[in-house]
C-alpha cells in the first residue's frame, strides 16, 4: 500500500498569488493535476502527491509562489513531508512574511494512508487599507462648500433653462444644494436641489403643460465626474482656490476636478422630486424628461480638486488618485467621499478590500466628547510619512545640524538608521594632521568624528505623533609617528589611541500647534558620557592638533565633544522652530473650491497605526 497527501493552497488574502516556481517533488510524484500557476483572490488550488511505491520514501517537496500587493511581491514557499517510516511522521510548513501574509496550516484528514492538508494564505493590510494617503471628505464639509459657492454666486440661485421640444424650467429662487452618499465603495452621489419657487413647462401629446415645483426638492443620483484642469480661471471656485491650483500647475503637477455634472443627463442614475414632507411628487414621463433636460441650468458643481505629481518624487504629494464613497447610516453628514492616493510613483494596491473602509471616517466627536463639526480627515501610512517627509526633510536636517555628512538607511516604516563620519585621512597621505617633529620623527594625529542614531515611532501618544531618537557622537583619535622621510624609512609607530563618546536621546514631535498649523519640533537631551577609552597617555600637544582638526577650543576632548553635542541640540531646535518650510505640508494634495486646507487638529497615530489628522477648509 502506498501513501499520499492532498495539498490545498487557499488564497484568503484578497491579493493575487502568482509566479509559481517549478514544483520540487523531492520524493513522491504528482497524481493528477499540478498546482495552478496562479491563484486568484478567493480561489484555491489542490494537488495530490503520492509515494512512488511501497518501498520508496514518502511524499516530500516544495512549491513557491509570489503574493502581489500591487507594490511588493511577497515570496511564499509551501513544504510537505509525509514520511513512509513506521510512524508515518508528517510535517507541513510555510515560509512567508508573517507580518504581511501569514499562512495558517490545517491538517484536514489524518485517517488511513491518504491524508489532506490546507495552507490558508491570509493578509494583514497596512493602514490605511494599503493606500499611501486617504482624504476622507465628509458630506457636511462638501455641503458647506456648496453653500459658500452659492453665496459667492458661483452656483446660481435662480435661472431659466430651455431644452428641445418646448421644455423650460424657471427657478426664481433655489436654496443651497446639498449632497448625500447613497451607497458604499462607489462614485455615486445624490444631489438635492431645493426649489423655493419654480415652474416646469413641457409638451405632452401636443399640448403645453405646466408643473408647479415650488417647495419641492429635486434629487438627482449620478456618478462623480472627473476632468483635468487646463485653465483655473474657468473654474467655479474662489480666487484663493484658483491661485493655489495655478501654483500647483507651475510645479508641473496635474490637477483634476471632481464635479457633479447636471448638464449631462446621460450620467443620471435616477431623478425624483419630493415635497416638503419628503413624499414623492408624481411626474409624467414627459415632465420627467423635460426636467432632466433643463437641469443643465444648474450646470457643474465642483466638489474637489486633486493633485498628481509626475514621476516618483520623494514627498507626500500624490502621483495617483481614485475616489470611492463610505456611507454612514447613523448620520449622513459624516458619510465621506474618500480620495484614495498613492505617492512616489507607486501603483494602486491589489488588495480586493482596499475601498472597504468602516464608517465613520470623519470625526463625529471632539476629544472632549462634544459633537464635532463634519470636516475632512487625512490618513497617512507610516511609510508615506517616513519616505515622504521624515527621510527627505527631517533626518537630513538632523545630519546637517551635526555638521557631519551621513547616510540614511530605512529599516522598517518610520524606523531609520543614520550614520555619518568625517575625518582627516585626506591629509599627508592618510597620516592625518601633522603636529611637529619630535626627536627625529614626524608626529601626526588622525581623527574621525562620527554621529549615529536611529528612529522609532511611539504609538502611545494621544494628542501628537512622536518618534524617539537614540544616538551618539563619537571621536576616535590615533596619534602616530614616522621616521623622517630623509632617513628612508616608512615605519609607523602608534603612540596612542583614544575614543570619546557623547550619547544622546531625543524626540521628533509632529502635532497640530497653535493657530491650527502643523508643527514639527526636535528635542535633544544629552546623556551621561562614559569614561573615555584611552590606551596610552597622550601628550598635551595632541589637543592642539584636535583643536585645529575639529575647530575645538578646549583642552579636554570630552568637554569639546559634549559642547558640540549641546550646540547640535540647540541649533536643531532652532532650525525647526524658525523655519516654516521644515513643517509637514499637506496643502498640495487636495484643494476644495473655496481654497486649500488651513486648519488642523488631532494629529495622531490611530488604532490601526496610520497617521490621521482632522482638517478644515475655508468656507
Textual characterization of the structure:
With 619 residues, the chain is mainly beta. It is flat and about 120 Å long. Helices cover 14% and strands 44% of the residues. The chain has six helices and 36 strands. The strands form six sheets. Strands 25, 26, 27, 28, 29, 30, 31 and 32 form an eight-stranded antiparallel sheet that branches. Strands 12, 13, 14, 15, 16, 17 and 20 form a seven-stranded antiparallel sheet that branches. Strands 22-23-11-24-36-35 form a six-stranded antiparallel sheet. The termini are far apart.
Throw out a few tags for this protein:
6 helices; 44% strand; mainly beta; seven-stranded antiparallel beta sheet; 36 strands; 619 residues; eight-stranded antiparallel beta sheet
Chain oligomer state = single chain
Shape: flat
Q: Spans of 5+ residues with little confidence (pLDDT < 50)? A: none
Largest sheet report: 8 strands, antiparallel
Helix content: 10-25%
Average residue-wise pLDDT? 92
- In angstroms, what separates the terminal alpha carbons? 80 Å
Strand content: 35-45%
**What radius of gyration results from the CA coordinates?**
34 Å
Number of strands: 36
Alpha-beta content class: mainly beta
Treating each run of at least 4 consecutive H or I residues as one helix, how many helices?
6
Quick summary:
Helices cover 14% and strands 44% of the residues.
Explain the layout of strands and helices.
Elements: E1 4-11, E2 17-18, E3 24-27, E4 29-31, E5 44-50, E6 60-68, E7 73-82, E8 90-95, E9 103-109, E10 114-121, E11 133-138, H1 139-151, E12 159-163, E13 167-174, E14 178-180, E15 188-204, E16 207-212, E17 216-223, E18 225-228, H2 239-250, E19 254-261, E20 268-274, H3 285-294, E21 300-308, E22 318-326, E23 336-343, E24 376-380, H4 382-402, E25 406-412, E26 415-423, E27 433-438, E28 441-458, E29 465-483, E30 493-512, E31 518-526, E32 533-534, H5 541-550, H6 557-577, E33 590-592, E34 595-596, E35 599-605, E36 611-616
Parallel strand pairs: 1-10
Antiparallel strand pairs: 1-5, 2-6, 3-6, 4-5, 6-7, 7-8, 9-10, 11-23, 11-24, 12-13, 13-15, 14-15, 15-16, 15-17, 17-20, 18-19, 19-21, 21-33, 22-23, 24-36, 25-26, 26-28, 27-28, 28-29, 29-30, 30-31, 30-32, 33-34, 35-36
Amino acid at each position: 500500500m502506498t501513501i499520499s497527501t492532498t495539498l490545498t493552497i487557499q488564497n484568503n488574502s484578497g491579493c493575487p498569488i502568482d509566479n509559481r516556481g517549478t514544483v520540487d517533488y523531492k520524493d513522491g510524484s504528482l497524481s493528477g493535476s499540478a498546482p495552478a500557476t496562479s491563484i486568484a483572490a478567493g480561489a484555491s488550488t489542490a494537488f495530490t502527491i503520492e509515494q512512488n511505491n511501497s518501498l520508496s520514501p514518502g511524499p516530500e517537496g516544495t512549491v513557491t509562489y509570489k503574493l502581489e500587493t500591487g507594490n511588493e511581491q511577497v515570496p511564499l514557499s509551501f513544504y510537505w513531508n509525509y514520511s513512509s517510516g513506521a510512524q508515518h511522521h508528517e510535517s507541513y510548513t510555510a515560509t512567508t512574511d508573517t507580518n504581511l501574509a501569514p499562512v495558517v496550516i490545517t491538517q484536514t484528514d489524518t485517517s488511513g494512508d491518504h491524508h489532506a492538508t490546507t495552507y490558508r494564505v491570509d493578509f494583514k493590510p497596512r493602514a490605511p487599507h494599503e493606500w499611501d494617503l486617504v482624504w476622507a471628505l465628509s458630506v457636511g464639509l462638501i455641503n458647506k462648500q456648496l453653500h459658500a459657492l452659492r453665496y459667492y454666486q458661483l452656483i446660481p440661485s435662480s435661472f431659466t433653462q430651455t431644452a428641445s421640444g418646448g421644455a423650460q424650467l424657471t427657478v426664481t429662487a433655489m436654496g443651497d444644494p446639498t449632497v448625500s452618499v447613497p451607497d458604499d465603495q462607489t462614485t455615486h452621489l445624490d444631489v438635492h436641489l431645493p426649489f423655493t419657487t419654480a415652474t416646469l413647462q413641457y409638451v405632452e401629446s401636443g399640448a403645453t403643460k405646466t408643473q408647479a415645483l415650488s417647495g419641492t426638492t429635486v434629487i438627482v443620483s449620478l456618478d462623480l465626474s472627473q476632468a483635468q484642469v487646463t485653465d483655473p480661471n474657468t473654474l467655479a471656485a474662489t480666487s484663493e482656490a484658483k491661485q493655489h491650483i495655478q501654483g500647483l500647475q507651475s510645479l508641473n503637477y496635474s490637477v483634476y476636478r471632481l464635479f457633479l455634472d447636471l448638464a449631462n443627463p446621460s450620467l443620471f442614475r435616477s431623478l425624483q422630486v419630493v415635497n416638503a414632507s419628503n413624499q414623492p411628487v408624481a411626474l409624467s414621463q414627459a415632465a420627467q424628461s423635460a426636467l432632466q433636460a433643463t437641469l443643465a441650468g444648474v450646470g457643474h458643481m465642483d466638489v474637489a480638486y486633486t493633485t498628481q505629481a509626475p514621476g516618483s518624487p520623494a514627498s507626500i504629494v500624490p502621483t495617483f488618485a481614485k475616489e470611492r464613497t463610505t456611507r454612514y447610516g447613523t448620520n449622513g453628514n459624516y458619510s465621506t467621499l474618500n480620495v484614495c492616493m498613492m505617492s512616489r510613483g507607486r501603483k494602486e494596491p491589489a488588495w480586493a478590500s482596499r475601498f472597504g473602509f468602516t464608517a465613520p471616517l470623519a470625526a463625529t466627536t471632539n476629544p472632549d466628547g462634544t459633537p464635532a463639526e463634519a470636516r475632512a480627515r487625512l490618513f497617512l501610512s507610516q511609510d508615506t510619512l517616513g519616505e515622504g517627509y521624515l527621510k527627505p526633510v527631517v533626518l537630513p536636517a538632523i545630519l546637517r545640524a551635526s555638521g557631519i555628512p551621513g547616510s540614511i538607511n530605512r529599516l522598517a516604516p518610520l524606523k531609520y538608521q543614520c550614520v555619518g563620519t568625517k575625518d582627516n585621512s585626506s591629509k599627508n597621505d592618510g597620516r592625518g594632521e601633522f603636529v611637529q617633529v619630535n626627536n627625529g620623527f614626524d608626529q601626526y594625529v588622525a581623527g574621525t568624528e562620527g554621529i549615529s542614531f536611529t528612529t522609532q515611532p511611539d504609538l502611545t501618544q494621544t494628542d501628537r505623533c512622536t518618534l524617539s531618537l537614540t544616538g551618539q557622537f563619537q571621536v576616535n583619535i590615533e596619534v602616530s609617528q614616522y621616521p623622517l622621510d630623509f632617513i628612508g624609512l616608512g615605519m609607523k609607530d602608534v603612540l596612542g589611541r583614544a575614543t570619546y563618546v557623547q550619547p544622546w536621546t531625543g524626540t521628533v514631535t509632529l502635532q497640530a500647534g497653535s493657530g491650527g498649523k502643523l508643527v514639527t519640533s526636535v528635542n535633544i537631551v544629552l546623556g551621561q558620557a562614559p569614561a573615555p577609552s584611552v590606551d596610552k597617555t597622550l601628550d598635551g600637544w595632541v589637543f592642539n592638533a584636535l583643536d585645529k582638526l575639529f575647530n575645538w577650543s578646549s583642552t579636554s576632548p570630552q568637554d569639546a565633544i559634549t559642547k558640540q553635542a549641546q550646540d547640535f541640540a540647540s541649533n536643531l531646535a532652532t532650525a525647526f522652530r524658525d523655519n516654516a518650510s521644515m513643517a509637514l505640508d499637506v496643502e498640495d494634495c487636495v484643494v476644495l473650491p473655496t481654497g486649500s486646507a488651513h486648519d488642523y487638529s488631532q494629529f495622531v497615530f490611530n488604532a490601526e497605526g496610520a497617521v490621521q489628522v482632522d482638517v478644515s477648509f475655508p468656507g
